[in-house]
Amino acid sequence: SLLLTGCGRPAASAMELVPFTSQAWGIRGTAPEGWQEVSPGHFAGDEWPIDQLLYEVYPGMTSEIVTTTALLPRLGRDALPDPTGTNESGGFTWDLYTIDIEDPNAGPIVVDLAMTETDTEVYLVAMVTGVDDHDPLREAVFVPAVEAFEPVVFDQRNLVTVEELLAPDYTGDGPVNHAFFSPMGNSESARHELEGTLTIPEFRMFDTVPVNQVKHSSMGYFPGFTAEFFTYEGNLVPVQREVLLSPGEKSFWKIILSPGKVWSESDDEGMSRASFPFVLVAEDTSETHNGVATFVFNDDQVSSFRFQVTQETAAWRQVDYWGQSPMDYVPGSLEERETLAAQFVEELSQQVSIRPWSDLEENYDPQLLDTFNGNILPSSLSTSGLILNDTIYLQPCHTRYGPFPYCESMRHGSFSVMKSMGAAIAMLRLAEIYGEEVFEFKIVDYVEVTADHDGWEEVTLGDALNMATGIGDDLPEQAEPNVMMADEEGDEEIFNGFMEAM
After folding, report:
1. How far is CA 479 from CA 154, 257, 444, 471, in A?
2. What's the rounded Cα separation, in Å, for the pair 107 and 102?
3. Distant-in-sequence, close-in-space partners of 150: CB < 8 Å, separation ≥ 6
4. How many CB atoms lie within 10 A of CB 247?
5. Binning pLDDT at 50, 70 and 90, where does residue 477 land?
6. Most exposed of 20, 56, 114, 119 (fewest Cβ within 10 Å)?
7. CA distance 301 to 463
């Protein structure tokens, strides 16, 4: 919502603006001193539901789509009013709007809105005020915020520094832009080779879960693991990968490791730097949370292990995790090192070609390509692309803190997609073996049905492929008002049993 909380403020003339940089949005701007950043780029004063300043970025979208999907529902309007003017600043032309809203809690309020569009994204600055204070706050806060707006290019390492990584404990302020987990500045090839065993213990993670919403303490622990790694031509290769590594005694999560990269930077005290992607997999639903880790190393030692997780395929558990822990390194030659390296080279040679989405603009209408994702907001989209002539054209993999640096290694829980696709593939195989009539076979002839009604008697295997059979343990008239979700929402034991079976 555009509306948050607050309670009393100084006069607009007494407000002092302070600069800020948003790691999540990749922008710089200003905000009133003392206003709390309640979420990335969203500042709130002490009045509820007024005194708010918001900066937002919508990559890969147009102003029209942002207006329809993100703005109008929050404003409670069918359309934006005509612009009140424009603002030329920072190389952008901002369209300005002033929108009057009747809030059920605060009465009449005013939203000032500035929006501009580039070839790659839409930028938005908004301020919410009371009617009486609108004019002075507009001049004191909103206009300076628009004029101070600036995209950030993360190309100098002032975060996740070698000093931070060599410390035993985490000293940061939360997740950072993913650019800091990739080469920055004048980077070069790694100065050292890494070959041996890394051991990361289970340890307590930082997270964005409110204290009153913590369900299980085990969900707050990083799953420690021991795995062999080696470097090969700029790559960091985990030997134990493509498999779930089970956690120890404290953690709720399993983990999958994927290959990363190694390099060096001039300010890393002569050490080399590494990063690699991984996936946290939930014990109960097998949902996937994509993360990235980094550390510095030389021939004999490694720094602490720094990580963050800011993307998931789980609408019910959208949360950031981050932290740092000391880890152990036992250098040593790996058995079958040459064989492992040859297998890795073969794997790389067989990968499907991946090209950036922008390459499609060479042969296709850019305006048509802009409509590919429809009205889905980037915050609701894990990744997107298409396969054309044996090549994957991939859009940036968005996270809450910038593009994921290892897009090709992200994993996404498929859930209902898998239930339909997996079942369809299985049915096609059965039809190939036994004939097409298998689609007409009755489920009750092959599965024990315990429901105390006869609604299942005519349901076929083919019917179930559409995931809309509509009959659980309850008859439709007993399951109102939500027939299709009756079992999932009404009987936790049945639902949990189904999830465990999956």
Report:
1. 53, 43, 21, 9
2. 5
3. 27, 28, 29, 90
4. 21
5. low
6. 119
7. 59
Q: Model confidence over 44-75: pLDDT tens digits?
A: 988 766 889 999 999 888 898 899 888 998 89
Q: What is the pTM of this model?
A: 0.83
What is the Cα gyration radius of the chain? 26
Which of 147, 160, 184 has the alpha carbon at shortest distance from 28? Answer: 147
Strand order through the sheet with 391-394: 353-356, 391-394, 385-388
**Residue 317 is encoded by which pair of tokens?**
């558990």
On the CB side of 92, how many CA atoms lie within 13 Å of its CA? 22
Q: How many other CB atoms are found less than 10 A from the CB of residue 430?
A: 15
| DSSP type of residue 168 | S
H or E element: which one contains 430? helix 416-434
If you search the block for the tokens 């300043």, which residue do you land on? 53
d(CA 384, CA 372): 9
The whole-chain average pLDDT of the chain stands at 87
Query: Cα separations (Å) of 72 from 95, 99, 128, 328, 385?
Result: 16, 11, 15, 52, 27
Determine the 3-state secondary structure of 414 from DSSP: coil
d(CA 198, CA 48): 50
What residues are paired with 121 via a beta bridge? 59
Which of 226, 306, 214, 212 lies closest to 252, judged by CA? 214
Cα–Cα distance for residue pair 444/433, rounded to 1 Å: 21
